[in-house]
Specification:
By secondary structure, this protein is of the alpha/beta class. It is built from 15 helices and 16 strands. The chain folds into two domains: 118 residues, 3-Layer(aba) Sandwich (Rossmann fold), CATH 3.40.50; 270 residues, TIM Barrel. The chain has an eight-stranded mixed beta barrel with strand order 6-7-9-10-11-12-13-14, surrounded by five helices. The protein has a five-stranded parallel sheet with strand order 2-1-3-4-5, sandwiched between helices. A two-stranded antiparallel sheet has the order 15-16. Strand 13, helix 14 and strand 14 form a beta-alpha-beta unit. The protein is globular and about 65 Å long. The two termini are 21 Å apart.
């Protein structure tokens, strides 16, 4: 699953933080964040550290207020980050951080100029939050306030909409665009398009997660039915929090919904994370078994991150699993990560479980996953989330030769991003 709100113990605090203007950090040393307190003036911003190239791209939705680039960063290539801003057509402010060496700073300035990046200043390393906050404060916009009443109106008036991220699967000797993951957006009448990080915290704190999930399920299944009428056989994947599934009627309601829009049960996949508590796990076992008995598929998300992944795999009737993006990202950087991914794929295949790797961002990672015999690929290397209409165009123009290129249906390539 791509695009979760930041995890905080207090959902209301999460919603307030996620509504703040975002500053993305492309820097290896961000220790200054650890020393910040709630009453620090710099906390009027949401600070987000880009951990990989794809993570950087994900953090640009919604568009950030500023991007801070350490010209000598190693975790994410600073030059690549500057070019990505241009490829993504982002009109954001850029601050360059340097260690005193004029050569990389000059190179970064030249790149920023070529990419038409709006550089508002430079700062020496180590990064000082107050100085950085002062530099960007004049460009800060007001915080978007989201209330429970706003959300209820949005659901009632169909202001929520779905974008879909395509997934390709290995079918014999070729790759086919087989599925899409449904991702919710909010077309706000005043603030424009809002992304999950701007409202999911309020959804949770207001007790509206079940309503939003029902809305997304209905919209996704209806869209799958529309695609079938257009002779596009696309499976849809919908994220589901386990605690929402606590009754055996859940499967029956889904089956009725699938029948209403003429979608075979096997073309819907519910994507769940590990249950957060033993109580939740016990409550959902029977309900999940009913889901599988109905022919609906179940995918275990973020496999490889939690200590109970193997236990969940044994207890619940999963048909699919998604390898955590951190493991996928590290495949070409750390031999151990590649070995773990290969082991996960082998274990899953022995259990007749289909494996999807998410967060795929480079040709090298794609090749490593191909060597590991991974069944499906998701990530900006293939395509970014797009509207339903653009999914249709991508599928109709799809060719395996376009993987990782700038052609129709592609996503992130070595030369940039094609946007639809």
């Amino acid at each position: 699953m791509t695009e979760r709100a930041a995890a905080y113990d207090d959902p209301l605090r999460a919603s307030l933080i996620s509504a703040r203007p975002r500053i993305i950090l492309v820097a290896d040393d961000c220790r200054f964040l650890q020393g910040m307190h709630d009453d620090d003036p710099a906390n009027i911003y949401e600070w987000a550290v880009a951990k990989s190239r794809e993570h950087f791209v994900e953090l640009t939705e919604p568009p950030p207020l500023a991007v801070v680039v350490d010209v000598e960063a190693k975790g994410v290539d600073p030059i690549d980050a500057l070019f990505l801003l241009s490829a993504l057509s982002l009109k954001t402010k850029v601050v360059l951080v340097h260690g005193g060496d004029p050569v990389p700073l000059a190179h970064a300035r030249e790149t920023a100029n070529t990419a038409s990046a709006d550089v508002i200043g430079t700062l020496p390393r180590p990064i000082a939050a107050p100085a950085l906050a002062r530099m960007v404060s004049q460009y800060s916009s007001s915080v978007i306030a989201v209330s429970a009443d706003d959300l209820q109106s949005a659901l009632r008036e169909h202001q929520m909409l779905l974008h879909f991220q395509p997934i390709i699967s290995h079918d014999g000797n070729r790759w086919v665009m087989s599925d899409v993951e449904a991702l919710v957006r909010w077309r706000h009448p005043k603030h424009g398009l809002l992304f999950p990080g701007q409202f999911l915290g309020t959804v949770r704190s207001s007790g509206l997660m079940s309503d939003l999930t029902d809305y997304v399920l209905t919209e996704a299944i209806q869209q799958a039915g529309i695609w079938r009428q257009q002779r596009l056989d696309l499976g849809v994947m919908v994220n589901l929090e386990p605690h929402l599934v606590r009754d055996l009627d859940f499967a029956e309601r889904l089956v009725r919904l699938l029948g209403q829009f003429d979608v075979p049960p096997g073309r819907l996949t519910l994507e769940v994370v590990e249950s957060s508590s033993a109580r939740d796990r016990e409550l959902v076992v029977n309900a999940m078994q009913s889901v599988r008995d109905s022919g609906i598929r179940l995918s275990l998300d973020d496999f490889g991150t939690g200590s109970s992944s193997l236990t969940e795999l044994r207890r619940l009737p999963f048909t699919d699993l998604k390898i955590d993006r951190a493991l996928v990202h590290d495949m070409t950087l750390a031999p151990k990560a590649a070995t773990i991914v290969s082991g996960i794929v082998d274990l899953a295949h022995r259990l007749s479980i289909r494996v999807c790797a998410e967060g795929v961002e480079t040709a090298e990672t794609f090749a490593a996953l191909l060597a590991a015999k991974c069944d499906a690929i998701q990530g900006v290397f293939i395509a970014r989330p797009v509207t339903a209409a653009n999914v249709e165009r991508m599928v109709r123009n799809w060719s395996p030769d376009q993987i990782g290129t700038a052609g129709p249906g592609s996503g992130l390539s070595t030369t940039g991003i094609r946007k639809y």
